[in-house]
Automatic annotation (TrEMBL):
Entry's Gene Ontology molecular function annotations: enzyme inhibitor activity
InterPro entries on file: Invertase/methylesterase_inhib, Pectinesterase_inhib_dom, PME_Inhibitor
CDD domains in the record: PMEI-like_3
UniProt-recorded name of the protein: Pectinesterase inhibitor domain-containing protein
Keywords: Signal
Native organism: Escallonia herrerae
Highest taxon of source: Eukaryota
Lineage of origin: Eukaryota, Viridiplantae, Streptophyta, Embryophyta, Tracheophyta
Domain Pectinesterase inhibitor: 7-92
Length: 109
């Protein structure tokens, strides 16, 4: 890869590092979530997972103007899959937010 493709890949790596950081933050808070901290922390978790999705979309945006070569297509397919999984995680967090702290009773991490 060279030129624009290399720049897009470098930007994508930066975006994914941000996404990973957001997801780690979310998981760490989820693991320590209690009924007392639920209200103040569930919004943070939702924001971080949403931010991870935004970072992943930004990664894909960087490839819009590059040549459609095999490596770029592979990266795009992998990012699309990870975005799908992250979107599912956001749906689960949103469901947890609507069910409230009582849903934590039988939840094990």
């Amino acid at each position: 890869m060279r030129g624009r493709n290399r720049i897009a890949l470098s930007d994508c790596i930066d975006c994914f590092q941000d996404a990973i950081d957001n997801l780690h933050d979310s998981l760490n808070v989820l693991r320590s979530l209690t009924g007392k901290t639920f209200g103040s922390k569930i919004g943070d978790i939702t924001t971080w997972v949403s931010g991870a999705l935004t970072d992943q979309d930004t990664c894909l945006d960087g490839f819009d103007s590059v040549q459609n070569i095999r490596q770029v297509t592979l990266v795009q397919n992998l990012v699309t899959y990870v975005t799908y999984v992250t979107s599912n995680a956001l749906a689960l967090v949103s469901k947890l937010a609507t069910t409230g702290p009582e849903s934590l009773i039988n939840l094990r991490w």
